[in-house]
Specification:
Structural class: alpha+beta
Number of helices: 2
Oligomer: single chain
Strand order of the largest sheet: 3-4-5
Distance between the termini: 94 Å
Shape: rod-shaped
Order of helices and strands: HEEHEEE
Largest sheet: 3 strands, antiparallel
Number of strands: 5
Strand content: 15-25%
Length: 169
């Protein structure tokens, strides 16, 4: 019996080329994932800032709910706290706020000051930020319940804008 020997020339080179092609595809996939990760990281950073800003406004609203701030000295005779939903962001100049519908007195001054300071912080920390604060129907123990929506420019998403909404009780 005679054994025939078949020569395999170039097979090792083809195997190397296939493995390099597979490696290149894997590296391209990893580069794409890294780019997407950076985009999502910036978006999540803005979202966490929006959550912190919403918590800041909630704290400001809660601080102005205390009946003892009105000077009456008792919780039963105190007037309702200021209605922060009457404060709005400027329609053309988003860096300004208006609380003209609030009324007058120390309650109005507090609401106007708090919203103005908060709006300045929002505009400084989120790109092209706008916000709306709406009062929900039904008061809880005579106090107001609000829905806050903060919208900012997030060009990393397909929509272009991102929104964070929260209910403040």
């Amino acid at each position: 019996m005679r054994k025939t020997r078949v020569q395999q020339v170039g097979v090792a080179l083809i195997e190397v080329m296939v493995s390099v092609a597979i490696l290149a595809l894997g590296l391209l996939g990893m580069a794409g994932m890294q780019a997407r990760s950076l985009m999502m990281n910036q978006s999540s950073h803005y979202r966490s800032i929006a959550a912190d800003l919403a918590g800041d406004l909630a704290d400001r609203i809660h601080a102005n709910r205390s009946p003892y701030l009105s000077g009456s000295g008792s919780a039963t005779s105190a007037p309702l706290p200021p209605d922060f939903s009457k404060c709005t962001q400027g329609s053309t100049d988003k860096s300004t706020t208006s609380c003209l519908a609030q009324g007058s007195g120390v309650q109005s001054y507090r609401a106007s000051t708090e919203i103005s300071e908060w709006n300045t912080t929002v505009r400084a920390q989120l790109p092209s930020a706008t916000w709306s604060l709406t009062k929900e129907s039904g008061a809880i123990s005579g106090y107001y319940r609000y829905t806050l929506s903060i919208t900012w420019l997030d060009d990393r998403t397909t929509a272009g804008n991102a929104t964070y909404s929260v209910v403040i009780e």
